[in-house]
Amino acid sequence: MFQFPRIIQGGMGVGVSNWRLAQAVSRLGQLGVVSGTAIDQVLVRRLADGDKGGHMRRGLDAFPFPDMAKRIWNEYFVPGGKPEGKPYPNVPMHQRRDSRKLIELLMVSNFVEVFLAREGHINRIGVNFLEKVQLPHLASIYGAMLAGVGYVLMGAGIPLHIPGVIDNFAEHKPGEYKLAVAGATPEQDTMMRFDPRDYVEGPLPKLERPRFLAIVSSNTLATTMLRRATGRVDGLVIESPTAGGHNAPPRGKLQLDAMGQPIYGHRDKVDLEELRKLGVPFWLAGGYGSAAKLREALDEGAAGVQVGTAFAFSEESGLRPDLKRRLVAQAAKGEGQVFTDPLASPTGFPFKVAQLAGTYSDEGVAAARTRVCDLGYLREAYAAEDGKIGYRCTAEPAAAYVAKGGRIEDTIGRKCLCNALLANIGHPQTRQDKTAEPPLVTVGDDLNKVAQFLEDGRESYSAADVVERLLGEVGVSQGELVSLSAASRA
Ligand SMILES: Cc1cc2nc3c(=O)[nH]c(=O)nc-3n(C[C@H](O)[C@H](O)[C@H](O)COP(=O)(O)O)c2cc1C
Questions:
Q1: Cα of 243 to ligand 1 centre, how many Å?
Q2: Burial class (CB in 10 A: 0-12, 13-18, 19+), 189
Q3: DSSP string, 422-462
Q4: What is the distance between the alpha carbons of residues 328 and 319, in angstroms, rounded to a whole number?
Q5: Which residue among 12, 132, 469 is best mutated to probe the pocket of ligand 1, counting the most ligand atoms within 8 A of its Cβ?
Q6: Contact assessment for residue 86 and residue 434, using Cβ atoms and an 8 Å cutoff
Q7: What is the pLDDT of residues 307-325, one digit of tens each?
Q8: What's the 123 CA to ligand 1 centre distance in angstroms?
């Protein structure tokens, strides 16, 4: 019999759901989830900022292969932090075959984030990845597993092959993952491979197979995951298009409302009756950050809810304090505005953006930014003419994108989410002209509802305030977990 949380604090990249937030939620008996997306960059930048509080050092010291951790410390740690205005180090962008150094960085950074989130309590921690950000997958998952991650959650794509990879890694066996390469012929080798034994530097620690939850937005995807996944799928998170972050595009031909946002219709609604028949635990996400919505989800047979926005603005999250403060103040007045941008994300998926003056949501700020692609997580792999695999991003300089066979029209309106999301958490890259990359905050449609967590006169709230409010009114004590046997699920 499995025990599941009622509340999953959703993974929020880059670095919004950091180890601190996930630890706070898991300590309360619910599931805290760290984001593994671009966590290698996050570690590099925390070290370049002097590792305030010494937390990275503590995580590195716990890594099972000390020489590997030391190499990373020696390379990136800057005592006292880099001078203000000096750029962060450039780390090479990922490729199908990364250098050993980059693979080590992925393993170690994922380890550190999960290790710190697990520190000081015995509850489980999850790690979230986006299927579309494929290049770092294998080493990242293994690194998180070395730290004893309890759940792997993945959405933004169809992660059919991840469960099998996790099964293999639990026994330190090699894992493979097919890279999606536009224009590749069936004969072309597009497989990514990772063999833990090529990297371990000491005795193999015993690993537990984490549970795998797929984040999906339709009945078809839910069924496909359960039927075709290469290993066990332990549950499903059903995310509606009101959720923060990326949203699944609407079914059928894209239609926009008067403001230019995608229109979702009845075909985009998940049929819960059908879902229940699948017989696996599920959590509902997208606007479920209140006691009433948790109650509704439980009444629908869900194991619970996955909540993002409410936690993104809690004191523990990685979001820059000034951005948090301004958006919470807007929410308190009911004035927060969220735009579902069909173009901003290089992935082509709609992306929710909080409208906030002075950030990248501002047309003026967007127009003033010079296009540059130096992080590259959202690049698409494509079959280049020389038979090799190339990488391109719709948000990179348009001429470069077109030179790689991309269409100029696909570059319009795109924003560099990689740089913006690192700016959101206080690690903006500084450019040659001394300007800093602008932030772009993503948030769910329910932004204004975070006001419910503000006690009289207070301007901020904690993750515990969210958990207590959601559970308190549903009559569940904090530490209580839901037990679901196969029989009770049917
Ligand atoms: C700031 C932010 C970043 C997010 N980033 C991710 C992500 O990296 N991966 C992911 O699967 N979901 C991401 N999400 C979605 C959340 O995990 C969660 O499913 C969603 O926020 C639930 O809806 P809600 O925002 O209405 O609570 C993000 C949400 C927010 C608010």
A1: 6
A2: exposed
A3: HHHTT-PPBPTTSPBPPP-----TTGGGGGGG--TT-S---
A4: 12
A5: 12
A6: no
A7: 999 999 999 999 999 999 9
A8: 22
> Strand pairing of 235-239 and 211-216?
parallel
What b/e readout covers 86-112, taking b as 16+ CB neighbours within 10 angstroms?
A: eebeebebbbbebeeebbbbbbbbbbb
- Region 340-346 average pLDDT: 98
Distance, CA of 336 to CA of 51 (rounded, Å): 33
Whole-number Å distance, alpha carbon 91 to ligand 1 midpoint, is: 26
- Nearest atom within ligand 1 for CA of residue 424: 1
pLDDT band, residue 372 (cuts 50/70/90):
very high
Question: Does the CB atom of residue 196 touch ligand 1 within 6 A?
Answer: no
Flag whether pLDDT at 476 surpasses 60.
Answer: no
Contacts of 453 (CB under 8 A, 6+ apart): 310, 314, 461, 465, 466, 469
CA–centroid distance, 285 to ligand 1, in Å, is 9
Query: Measured between alpha carbons, how far is 343 from 441 in angstroms, rounded to an integer?
Result: 15
Query: Using alpha carbons only, what angle is made at residue 166 by residues 114 and 119, rounded to the nearest 5 degrees?
Result: 15
Please, which contacts does 265-273 make with residues 24 or more away whose CB atoms are closer than 8 Å? Answer: 268/217, 268/218, 268/240, 268/241, 269/240, 270/217, 270/218, 270/219, 270/222, 270/238, 270/240, 271/219, 272/300, 272/301
Q: Whose CA is nearest to atom 5 of ligand 1?
A: 12
What residues have CB less than 8 Å from 114, skipping those under 6 apart?
Answer: 19, 34, 125, 127, 143, 144, 147, 148, 149
Dist. CA 15–CA 22, nearest whole Å: 11
Rounded CA gap, 163 and 213, in Å? 9
Q: Is the CB of 394 under 6 A from ligand 1?
A: no
pLDDT at 474 over 80: no
Atom of ligand 1 nearest to the CA of 441: 1
